[in-house]
């Protein structure tokens, strides 16, 4: 119930802001707006303003602003012919193409602006930040075949400086590394009370290719997935794993590294500390089709604290975070277009309304700041995805208007109809696939 409520509030706000962008720009340019609808299908609530019908419709998966003279279905005002209707200065069709493009662009623009505002609000309300970000840079795990592994960094090394500049915690280290993307740096480490200087090659895009180190996270259990092998074996939140199959472990990523090598449903022996008791539990891993490997259903405990920022700093961090999310979304779309992402990777990252509702409910449960942050993230995606040059999306209309500006004449109505059919087919197929993917996740 909470997930449904969180989803309806989120999607209602995002759709309203998007359509309000179209609405306000249409009014600025003197276009008559006939209908302002939140949702599709039959209206469940509506009221009439001076010249616009405002309504909330039954299917809350979108919305629309119907402008006078927007398409061939426009009804002429009494006493007018259809041709006169399209020449009416209040008609969308009568407006210059640059105004039409701005009206189309306004919806996505308002979503992007909303994303900046919501993420800033999240920083002001307070969001959870991992405790380790303020702790010394002690390496918990080094991923094989990464820049860190090639540089000679090992687990339990303490990084104290980057190019001679001291780094006191993970936050400072992350900032220094981000600023030196694509460069070779000297990293000073402490190992067994001795200092060493290593050469580290920073990838050009660390969001796509990380340097390959993770913080030292204790081997303490957090959430246990209901119905998982771990729950059936009797593992509990707060248990500390001391050894796996007789091999001692000191960090969470050692657990991950050992369990990731399991390729059969063979019992695993875990030495567990619970309070003052130390005992052994056997767990039989179960194959997870979604991630393609055997798992036991455990997660670590992440110590986090609520961090709040002032007005100016919150907006500075919001702009920075939205730029980072923009780069991530751009890289994801680029990898799909260029074929660098496999079908399975796309499938794992694609979620429909059920997934969004699930994550929205989880975000709201974890705090208002996290919920605002997630809503901002979805708003940013909605803004950019609507700018894709696909017919029926705002980006598709902008593309058509650009083409008409270049050829200096309108495209034939038949061509626009076929483009609309193609656009509906693409978007419809994507929606069906996303919803089907949601149901598969539930069944699995």
Automatic annotation (TrEMBL):
Entry-linked CDD domains: cpPDZ_EcRseP-like, S2P-M50_PDZ_RseP-like
Classify the source by domain of life: Bacteria
Q: Which UniProt key words apply to this protein?
A: Hydrolase, Membrane, Metal-binding, Metalloprotease, Protease, Transmembrane, Transmembrane helix, Zinc
EC number, as in UniProt: 3.4.24.-
Annotated InterPro entries:
PDZ (IPR001478), PDZ_6 (IPR041489), PDZ_sf (IPR036034), Pept_M50_Zn (IPR004387), Peptidase_M50 (IPR008915)
Q: Where is the PDZ domain?
A: 186-251
GO molecular function per UniProt: metal ion binding; metalloendopeptidase activity
Q: Which Pfam families does the entry mention? A: PDZ_6, Peptidase_M50
Gene Ontology cellular-component terms for this entry are: membrane
Q: How does it sit in the membrane?
A: Multi-pass membrane protein
Q: What are the names of the required cofactors?
A: Zn(2+)
Q: Which named protein is this?
A: Zinc metalloprotease
Task: Give a GO biological-process term.
Answer: proteolysis
- Membrane-traversing stretches: 6-25, 102-125, 384-406, 418-436
Upper classification of the organism: Bacteria, Pseudomonadati, Aquificota, Aquificia, Aquificales
Q: Which NCBIfam families match?
A: RIP metalloprotease RseP
Q: Which family does it belong to?
A: Belongs to the peptidase M50B family.
Q: Which SUPFAM superfamilies match?
A: PDZ domain-like
**What's the main place this protein lives?**
membrane
């Amino acid at each position: 119930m909470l997930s449904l409520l969180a989803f309806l509030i989120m999607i209602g706000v995002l759709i309203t802001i998007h359509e309000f962008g179209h609405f306000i720009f249409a009014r600025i340019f003197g276009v008559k707006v006939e209908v302002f609808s939140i949702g599709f299908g039959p209206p469940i609530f509506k009221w009439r303003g001076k010249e616009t019908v405002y309504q909330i419709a039954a299917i809350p998966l979108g919305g629309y602003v119907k402008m006078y003279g927007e398409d061939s279905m426009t009804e002429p005002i009494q006493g007018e012919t259809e041709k006169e209707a399209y020449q009416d200065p209040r008609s969308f069709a009568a407006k210059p193409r640059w105004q039409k493009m701005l009206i189309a662009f306004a919806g996505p623009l308002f979503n992007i602006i909303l994303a900046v505002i919501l993420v800033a609000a999240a920083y002001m309300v307070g969001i959870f930040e991992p405790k380790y970000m303020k702790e010394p840079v002690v390496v918990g795990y080094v991923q094989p075949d990464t820049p860190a592994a090639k540089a000679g960094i090992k687990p339990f090394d303490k990084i104290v400086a980057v190019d001679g500049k001291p780094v006191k915690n993970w936050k400072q280290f992350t900032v220094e590394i981000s600023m030196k993307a694509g460069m070779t740096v000297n990293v000073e480490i402490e190992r067994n009370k001795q200092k060493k200087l290593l050469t580290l090659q920073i990838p050009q895009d660390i969001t796509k290719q990380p340097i390959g180190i993770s913080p030292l996270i204790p081997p303490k259990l957090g959430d246990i997935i209901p119905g998982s092998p771990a729950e059936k074996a009797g593992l509990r939140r707060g248990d500390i794993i001391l050894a796996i199959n007789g091999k001692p472990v000191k960090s969470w990523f050692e657990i991950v590294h050992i369990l990731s090598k399991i390729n059969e449903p063979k019992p695993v022996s875990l030495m567990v500390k619970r309070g003052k008791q130390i005992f052994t539990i056997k767990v039989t891993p179960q194959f997870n089709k979604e991630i393609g490997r055997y798992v036991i259903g455990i997660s670590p405990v992440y110590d986090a604290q609520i961090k709040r920022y002032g007005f100016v700093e919150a907006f500075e961090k919001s702009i920075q975070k939205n730029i980072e999310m923009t780069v991530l979304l751009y890289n994801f779309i680029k990898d799909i277009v260029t074929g660098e992402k496999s079908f399975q990777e796309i499938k794992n990252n694609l979620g429909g309304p059920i997934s969004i509702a699930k994550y929205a409910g989880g975000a709201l449960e974890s705090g208002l700041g996290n919920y605002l942050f997630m809503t901002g993230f979805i708003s940013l995606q909605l803004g950019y995805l609507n700018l894709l040059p696909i017919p029926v999306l705002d980006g598709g209309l902008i593309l058509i208007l650009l083409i008409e500006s270049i050829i200096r004449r309108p495209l034939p109505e038949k061509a626009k109809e076929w483009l609309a059919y193609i656009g509906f087919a693409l978007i419809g197929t994507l929606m069906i696939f996303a919803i089907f993917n949601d149901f598969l996740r539930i069944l699995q």
